[in-house]
Design brief:
This is Probable dual-specificity RNA methyltransferase RlmN. Its cofactor is [4Fe-4S] cluster. Belongs to the radical SAM superfamily. RlmN family. Its EC number is 2.1.1.192. The chain contains 11 helices and 15 strands. It folds into 2 domains: 59 residues, DNA polymerase, domain 1 (Orthogonal Bundle); 275 residues, TIM Barrel. By secondary structure, the chain is an alpha/beta fold. The strands form 3 sheets. Strands 3, 4, 5, 6, 9, 10, 11, 12, 13, 14 and 15 form an 11-stranded mixed beta sheet that branches.
Length: 341
């Protein structure tokens, strides 16, 4: 059985044409999936009964199963979702006054083995399908009030550029007026910096906001924190980012996890300043989220502010992220997966 949630609108139209079904029926089916968010093919009451019967023979409507919901003292919510092969993933909802942010995973585990990240320590299993990516969003949206403004970030488990087709297909569905109808301005893709994937991304007509998980502007330090970075020096990453058709006025966000004694010195700040002059960018300083599994410590608040002040003196845009959901292991670098036996 093929999951209908794996198709973009164009792909679904092509699939229906194989069955000699008119293209307007594909749009109706797409609307049922994403506007009405129905659970059964039989619920599509404007689709002829004969076609519904035909669809049920070859297709299914299947979302991940929500098996646990945890709520933080700061209102952050973490969802544990089980997939058809019994692997689980985690999705995070970060509520705010004017909007909610949904943090999506793109892989089961992660192959990059970043030393500061719990997910990376657990290893890699597989890429998520389009239906498993879009399913995280649908299940989360169902828990929210109608017409709530949503920001989408691919900052959960996995490296999105190593699953680019499924990630971009899911973004196509998110932004399609007949799908979820979200604005591309509210979608951010975060990457460690994979030049082949960045160059491939530049070929897509849809381009989300880009965040680079930088963590150091020094290649040696960066490779210690992110072993995958040994293959791709920052020069290659910056060159690939410059190929992206970023609209005038838009900037790449440089995510910088502040780790005590590793990347938080004034010298580190000045190295970062030199790099930021090469691309239109802003920096988001993120205090390291300490966990028993990882022997790093977070930079002190004083050191973070000293680092930020150094950047601001050079007229650079700097924000310091307030970590959310730490008490339920939902903050940056804390997500896990497991297999339900």
């Amino acid at each position: 059985m093929i999951n209908l949630y794996n198709y973009t609108k164009n792909q679904l139209t092509a699939e229906m044409q194989k069955l000699n079904v008119p293209s307007f029926r594909a749009i109706q089916i797409f609307n049922w999936l994403y506007k009405s968010k129905i659970a059964r093919i039989d619920d599509m009451n404007n689709i002829p009964a004969a076609l519904r019967l035909q669809l049920k023979k070859e297709y299914e409507i299947l979302l991940p199963e929500t098996v646990e919901i945890q709520k933080s003292i700061d209102e952050t919510i973490k969802y544990l979702l089980v997939l058809t092969d019994n692997y689980s993933i985690e999705t995070v909802l970060i509520p705010d006054v004017k909007h909610d942010t949904i943090c999506l995973s793109s892989q089961v585990g992660c192959p990059l083995a970043c030393t500061y990240c719990v997910t990376g320590h657990l290893g890699f299993v597989r890429n998520l399908t389009t239906s498993e990516i879009i399913g995280q969003l649908i299940l989360t949206i169902k828990t929210l009030p109608l017409n709530r403004k949503i920001n989408m970030v691919f900052m959960g488990m996995g490296e999105p550029l190593l699953n680019l087709k499924n990630v971009m297909d899911s973004i196509s569905i998110m932004t399609d007026k007949d799908g979820l109808g979200l604005s591309m301005r509210n979608i951010t893709l975060s990457t460690i910096g994979y030049p082949p994937g960045i160059k491939e991304l530049s070929t897509y007509s849809l381009l989300p906001k880009i965040a680079l998980s930088l963590n150091s502007a020094n290649d040696t330090v960066r490779a210690q924190l992110m072993p995958f970075a040994k293959k791709f020096p920052l020069t290659d990453i910056i060159n690939s980012l410059q190929t992206l058709p970023i609209k005038k006025g838009r900037r790449i966000t440089l995510e910088y996890i502040m780790i005590k004694g590793i990347n938080d010195s004034i010298q580190d700040a000045h190295t970062l300043i030199k790099l930021m002059k090469k691309i239109p960018s802003k920096v988001n300083l993120i205090p390291f989220n300490e966990t028993p599994q990882i022997p790093f410590e977070a930079s002190t608040n004083t050191q973070i502010e000293t680092f930020a002040s150094c950047l601001r003196k050079h007229n650079l845009t700097v924000t310091v992220r307030t970590s959310r959901g730490k008490d339920i292991s939902a903050a940056c670098g804390m997500l896990k997966f497991q297999r339900k036996m």
